[in-house]
Backbone:
């Protein structure tokens, strides 16, 4: 197993995490040369501030990480990661922390800050390494971080190297690492086995569409994760403008998130029967691309009128969800970079989700707070059901008017999910700017919360 923490037997520099309001008390207990050094370097324990204090012979005696004020901390997360990124090379061990410091999450933030996407150019690693605090579960945090790193790598990889073939290979590599079973239905076999929407969306590409199906575990509740794997989205015949197409390598962010979550679940040996379904396609333009106005069949038998070929994600998810519910799971979770409306509603930091099961909502909201993985519940608003019913077909993939885009997409998907408890995440999957522990680029959203919420929900 890849190790992200420094070995506990190494000589380490003591690290003190200092609340701004407690700085004067802490300094008063220090030798005069430490006091003078803090004053000379204007150390105020502000959030993310870092300072290395030398000993009298010039070696590193200790390091300080500013923890700011409570009000400052409420405006972000992973505060220690901000300081860790500024520390010089070395191995550090946390020697003291304020009473209100959530050491497990701050430690995880340090690990998350170590991520670098180095596939195409050399990138220097964060020089500061951490010895895991003794009362923190090092194995769990490492596996959570590695699952997040997988998600980030998949999203950050450009579409020329992350098409349906490569996404399938990533799933196969993950399955091999955890003795999971994987099968793939691709190309015209999708039609033969009744996945018409997946086939239709992906048929215009030179890269064959497919449905990836991975299973793991032999006991416990049956949990199925469904991730949108649109490896690039041109918009189809309703072609996106260039500015909107620039980030479409991340349109498989739902697949990246469920694969990262699957890594966490399997690596921590959770007791459940896990299934991961990823419809992997490229929404391209060619002579056989599906058209606005087409009426398409689905696996479930419902017909869908196409009013915008750029609303393709819900189509491939529809077939996958219909397939998922046939196995009668105890929980279905879908994740997708589905609508711009969700991003406009809550921004890039929150993971919006839909669910009507009160027990799952309670478990997820609690887990989100515990794991610093924020989510925001949006409604399956029943009065909007009529907006997705065009009359000429059973369903409309892109209701006109521009209202409630994320809600109508979620209502569309719910028609295919069956009677099992169902949660749908409409994530952005991208950090537009660097933040502590969360560099600019692809990101996991909601998966750390789900890792805790799923077993809690299944046990309730």
Residues:
């Amino acid at each position: 197993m890849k190790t992200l923490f420094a070995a506990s037997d190494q000589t380490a520099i003591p690290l003190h995490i200092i609340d701004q309001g407690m700085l004067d008390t802490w300094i008063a207990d220090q030798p005069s040369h430490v006091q003078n050094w803090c004053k000379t370097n204007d150390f105020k324990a502000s959030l993310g501030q870092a300072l290395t204090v030398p000993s009298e012979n010039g070696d590193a005696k200790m390091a300080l990480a500013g923890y700011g004020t409570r009000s400052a901390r409420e405006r972000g997360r992973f505060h220690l990661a901000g300081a860790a990124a500024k520390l010089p090379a070395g191995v550090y061990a946390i020697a003291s922390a304020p009473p209100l410091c959530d050491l497990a999450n701050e430690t995880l933030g340090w690990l998350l800050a170590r991520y670098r996407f180095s596939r195409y150019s050399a990138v220097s690693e964060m020089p500061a390494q951490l010895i895991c605090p003794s009362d923190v579960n090092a194995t769990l945090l490492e596996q959570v971080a590695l699952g997040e790193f997988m998600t980030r790598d998949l999203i950050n990889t450009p579409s020329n190297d992350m098409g349906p073939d490569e996404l399938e290979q990533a799933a196969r590599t993950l399955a091999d690492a955890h003795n999971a079973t994987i099968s793939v239905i691709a190309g015209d076999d999708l039609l033969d086995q009744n996945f018409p929407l997946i086939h239709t969306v992906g048929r215009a590409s030179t890269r064959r569409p497919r449905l990836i199906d991975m299973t793991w575990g032999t006991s416990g509740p049956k949990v199925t994760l469904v991730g949108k794997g649109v490896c690039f989205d041109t918009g189809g015949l309703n072609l996106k403008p260039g500015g909107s197409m620039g980030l479409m390598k991340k349109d498989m962010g739902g697949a990246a998130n469920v694969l990262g979550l699957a890594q966490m679940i399997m690596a921590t040996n959770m007791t459940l029967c896990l299934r991961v379904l990823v419809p992997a396609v490229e929404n391209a333009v060619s002579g056989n691309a599906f058209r606005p106005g087409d009426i398409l069949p689905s696996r479930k038998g419902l017909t869908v009128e196409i009013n915008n070929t750029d609303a393709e994600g819900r189509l491939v998810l529809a077939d996958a969800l219909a397939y998922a519910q046939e196995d009668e799971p105890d929980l279905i979770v879908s994740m997708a970079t589905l609508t711009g409306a969700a991003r406009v509603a809550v921004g890039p930091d929150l993971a919006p989700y839909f669910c009507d099961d009160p027990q799952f909502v309670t478990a997820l909201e609690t887990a989100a707070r515990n794991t610093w993985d924020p989510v925001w519940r949006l409604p399956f608003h029943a009065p909007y059901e009529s907006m997705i019913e065009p009359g000429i077909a059973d369903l409309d993939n892109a209701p006109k008017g521009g209202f409630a885009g994320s809600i109508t997409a979620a209502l569309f998907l719910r028609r295919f999910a069956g009677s099992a408890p169902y949660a749908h995440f409409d994530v952005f999957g991208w950090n537009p700017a660097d933040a502590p522990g969360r560099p600019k680029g692809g990101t996991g959203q909601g998966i750390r919360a789900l890792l805790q919420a799923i077993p809690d929900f299944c046990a309730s």
About this structure: The radius of gyration is 24 Å. The chain has a mean pLDDT of 97. Residues 100 and 246 are 42 Å apart (CA to CA). The longest strand covers residues 273-283.
